[in-house]
Amino acid sequence: MSTEEKIQENTAEKQDDLMQPIKSIEACIEAIVFAAGYPVPYQKLSEVIGIGVREVKRMTERIAKEYNNDKHGIMLLTLDKSCQFCTKEQYGTYIREALGIRRGGNLSASSMEVLAVVAYNQPVTRAFIDAVRGVDSNYAVNSLIDKELIAATGRLDAPGRPLLYGTTDKFLRVFGLNSLDDLPETETILPDNGGGDQLSIAVEEQNGESEQEEELTAKASEAAEETV
Q1: In terms of DSSP H, where are the helices of 50-125?
Q2: 105 Cβ neighbours under 8 A, 6+ residues apart
Q3: Is residue 170 within 8 Å of 131, Cβ to Cβ?
């Protein structure tokens, strides 16, 4: 055995010695997720703690309920495949003031409109978004993709096979939602001409993609890969 292999073995043994028996699995989950500061996959928690993914998810949901009251300034978001601690929205002003954080990066009105159309009607094509808003939405769609709030989820089975867009896990985290079911109730957003059928809207699109659309397609594909 080489010197390097011996060092690695000794390091591994020391790490094993430090892994004391878990007195409270929920407390362990809470500690890991809090320390991470980013979404921790349930699969990773399962591997580290040694219990099933389904059991991990059940425990995180129970932890989340414990923080769902006015006694805590943080909350646990339980996403589809991961979970993350975050602060509650009502304390944002105090946090920024205390930490000297400059407010910025707010979405424009047009981006918020596009995000609402996508969130409540997903998956949607760009033509559908344009039909709902009555204006070209290419810039806003591109901006939301860059911010990783929406991403390509597939293509519509129609002439030209236009991209379909949906919201991402980052969208849920930014708006403090566990799932799309937590979105405020509202009426479904559809074009004034009743063209809710995206197939009929897509048929009106020209076959093929412009250079702008090709660039958007590339960015959307990259965003979609990063959210997997």
Answers
A1: 53-66, 92-99, 109-121
A2: none
A3: no
pLDDT of residue 184: 86
Quick one: which of 40, 15, 18 has its CA closest to 29? Answer: 40
Of 3.40.50.150, 2.40.50.140, 3.40.50.10540, 1.10.10.10, the CATH number of 109-226 is 1.10.10.10
Taking the whole predicted model, whether its pTM rises above 0.85 is answered as no
Residues 127-167: pLDDT tens digits? Answer: 999 999 999 999 999 999 999 999 999 998 888 899 999 99
End-to-end Cα spacing for the chain: 40
Indicate the class that CATH gives domain 22-98.
Answer: mainly alpha
**DSSP assignment letter at 177:** -
Q: In degrees rounded to 5, what are phi and psi of residue 7?
A: -60, -45
Q: What percent of the chain has pLDDT over 70?
A: 71
Residue type, 140: A
The structure tokens listed for 170 are 């980052």
Q: pLDDT averaged over the chain?
A: 79
- Taking a C-beta distance cutoff of 8 angstroms, is the pair 165, 118 a contact? yes
Which residues partner with 83 through β-bridges?
40, 78
106: left (phi over 0), alpha (psi -120 to 50) or beta: beta
Cα 177 to Cα 170: distance, rounded to the nearest angstrom: 10
Query: Using one digit for the tens of pLDDT, what is the confidence trace for 6-15?
Result: 555 555 554 5
Would you say 162 and 125 are in contact if contact means Cβ atoms under 8 Å apart?
Answer: yes
